Amino acid sequence: MQLSTSQGKHHRIAACDLRVRQWRWPLAERDAAAIDSDWQRRKSVPNQLFNGQIYLFSDYTLGSDRLEGTLFQTDFKTLLYWRSLPYAASDSVREASGASLIRSAEGHLLFGRQGPGQLNTGLIYPPSGVIDDNDVIDDVIDIDASIQRELSEETGLSPADLSRVPGYHVATVGVHVTIGIEWRSPLPVAQLRERILAFTRTLSQPELEDIAILRRGDALPLSIMPPHARVFAEALLDGDCT
After folding, report:
1. All residues at 6 or more sequence positions from 240 whose CB lies less than 8 Å from its CB, including other chains
2. Which one, out of 102, 147, 159, 204, has a CA that is 20 to 30 A from the CA of 181?
3. Could you report the per-residue pLDDT of 33-54, keeping only the tens digit for each?
């Protein structure tokens, strides 16, 4: 099922098949010096950015109930440089990430607000992250494991605390393809929010500094939401938040 939102498209699918292949990204070799220079500029400002190995789509197809994609390995600094290019969207490459769409007992969505020194500082988004080597087994990407890892690292919640809704939500907007799992908690929203915040207070460098509650019928804080977050919120709240 596909739904167009104000920012991009939302797809509801049953399955994901994501595989890794060896591929040399022409941009990474051609612009190596510029990539290094861009990274040094970014690191000249105090932040928590780390240049780890990640995976991007070289191609993908979205059917009526399935996402199939081929991904390749690159590094985080190359991703950031590519994102900054005005012609990035004309490339066949797409960014790949996973997200947790957390609902309270009332059905409200809980998004995190990213803290200082991060890529999206101050923005509200579903707990999420890029795909890395931890998520690859025998050239197959375990997207569920990737999403669960980020969920645990950012919120302290695990699948044992939540009910997983079957299937996936996929947001496609610009150069981004974000794969989301919907989780439902038995806790009321205030209690669930406080549980997550209590966990973040135990961390020396928490990624999330606050938890926002998004309710059906309320206006979304669009100015501080990345496009993929808007797609998910509008779709899951039935388009009532604009």
Report:
1. 216, 217
2. 204
3. 999 999 999 999 878 889 999 9
